[in-house]
Amino acid sequence: MVGSVIASRWAADVDGEGRFPSEAMDGLCHERLLSCALPVAFGGDGLEMREICMIARVLGRYCASTAMIFVVHQTMVLSILRHHRGEEMEALLREIADDQLLVTGCGHDLMDEVTVGPDNVVSACGRAVTVLFAGQADLVVVRARRPDHGDETLAVFRADEIELRRQALGDGLGLRGLGWHTYSVSASMSEGNVLGASFREVAAETVVPVLRLLSCAAWVGIADSAIDTADRFIATGEGGTSAEAHPASLRRLARVQQRRDEVYSSVDRSAVEFGAHIGAIGGGGQSIADSAYAVSSIVSAALDICGTAGYQDGGEFGLGRQLRDLLGAREMIRSAVGVSTVARREEQVG
């Protein structure tokens, strides 16, 4: 209902104004979906990965910006859940569930200007960091180097514990509801902020596979939207002529639907595998790049079916938003959590 009733209603406005999809996110909070991945013991719903993927797909069908915010949030929540240590982090996980806190991440840029000041207060700084939906997030996960060990890790900060100074105003081509602004970032870090594992471990075991699965599911949702549009276009009779007179379009639509189903079957199989293993997933799942290409070809095929009507921005059969959202998808991933830094690891996990 959040997708079909709320997200769909405001998707065009979110895209046109380049604003945060507040209505849809309020709906997710009301349905307590921001904590759906957390175990019941922490106040969540304890959903399996394949169920979370389905939510991402449904949201992607109606508003890609809402879907990708959901994707980033769940990736960060699962990273905290699977790699945290200490009671302080467990209390934070319960607070995420109780108050439906929104979590973002900026792992692409390393907070490597780490200094130890008076009373052993550790300060971490980063410059020109893209932090998606920073103005609306309650928690920010950053990538920093620990001065004691020298290794990289992820640290979690409340919004009032981290200083974000906007350096440049972003205006994305696609996924315009995410906010593509660039910030300088600084925060004081303690052991209570830091996850127990290294960044490499968190990335390989959780960030990359979860982001890959949920992103691909959301992109299949975008494909669903494009296919729906093409189906409606054919149903109108393509300019007044009956759909039965155009078997070629119907056959092409069937092939597109089959390709969509194949992509999602790969996502679903990998989601099941992820749920069966504690560590990183392996096997036959598609890479992010392969899935992005496959979904782009599906949307392009739907555009061909709609012809000129598909190019009418804002028209009944326009597919411009879906195309632009897909163009922004991979850049969003790099900006959100720094998958480019572990690109080789991705090959090992799928």
From TrEMBL:
<dbReference type="InterPro" id="IPR037069">
    <property type="entry name" value="AcylCoA_DH/ox_N_sf"/>
</dbReference>
<dbReference type="InterPro" id="IPR036250">
    <property type="entry name" value="AcylCo_DH-like_C"/>
</dbReference>
<protein>
    <submittedName>
        <fullName>Acyl-CoA dehydrogenase family protein</fullName>
        <ecNumber>1.-.-.-</ecNumber>
    </submittedName>
</protein>
<dbReference type="InterPro" id="IPR009100">
    <property type="entry name" value="AcylCoA_DH/oxidase_NM_dom_sf"/>
</dbReference>
<feature type="domain" description="Acyl-CoA dehydrogenase/oxidase N-terminal">
    <location>
        <begin position="10"/>
        <end position="96"/>
    </location>
</feature>
<dbReference type="Pfam" id="PF02771">
    <property type="entry name" value="Acyl-CoA_dh_N"/>
</dbReference>
<keyword id="KW-0560">Oxidoreductase</keyword>
<dbReference type="GO" id="GO:0016491">
    <property type="term" value="F:oxidoreductase activity"/>
</dbReference>
<dbReference type="InterPro" id="IPR013786">
    <property type="entry name" value="AcylCoA_DH/ox_N"/>
</dbReference>
